[in-house]
């Protein structure tokens, strides 16, 4: 494996136990988006709401009438901008957004959630 230097401000994705964490560390701020896979049922609402199409939805796989895998979501760190729009629409609160350790959602704080929704329709 070839070592590549990490770009400053790049989003790093890591899986820890039943959590997927997307993290961006800047000089003075640290952003973190966390998916709790125990809570997530794979409904795909977050994937539909993502303005950058950074969330990929994978439907359940069936063999005959038996499900061999559950539906799931996955993040593309190259497309995600950590806006937090997915956090606002998750019906089971499986997604959380933190800025410098405190739960905060940028699209809500900056009042751009309503504007983004308006532009889509």
Q: How many structural units, i.e. domains?
A: 1
According to CATH, the fold-level topology is: Alpha-Beta Plaits
Strand order in the sheet with the most strands: 1-2-3-8-9
Which architecture per CATH?
2-Layer Sandwich
- Largest β sheet strand count, sense and barrel closure: 5 strands, antiparallel
Strand/helix succession? EEEHEEEEHEEHH
- Name the CATH class: Alpha Beta
Strand content: 25-35%
Total of DSSP H or I helical runs spanning 4+ residues:
4
Note down, in words, how this protein is organized.
The chain has four helices and nine strands; from the N terminus they run E-E-E-H-E-E-E-E-H-E-E-H-H. The chain is α+β, with helices and mostly antiparallel strands and 121 residues long. It has a single domain, classed as Alpha-Beta Plaits (2-Layer Sandwich). Strand 1 and strand 2 form a beta hairpin. The protein is globular, with a radius of gyration of 16 Å.
SSE map:
Layout: E1 11-16, E2 19-25, E3 30-36, H1 45-49, E4 55-58, E5 61-63, E6 66-69, E7 72-75, H2 85-89, E8 95-99, E9 102-103, H3 106-109, H4 113-120
Antiparallel strand pairs: 1-2, 2-3, 3-8, 4-7, 5-6, 8-9
Question: Brief description of this entry?
Answer:
With about 120 residues, the chain is of the alpha+beta class.
Which features would summarize this protein structure in a list?
4 helices, two-stranded antiparallel sheet, alpha+beta, five-stranded antiparallel sheet, about 35% strand, single chain, about 20% helix, globular, about 120 residues, Alpha-Beta Plaits, 9 strands
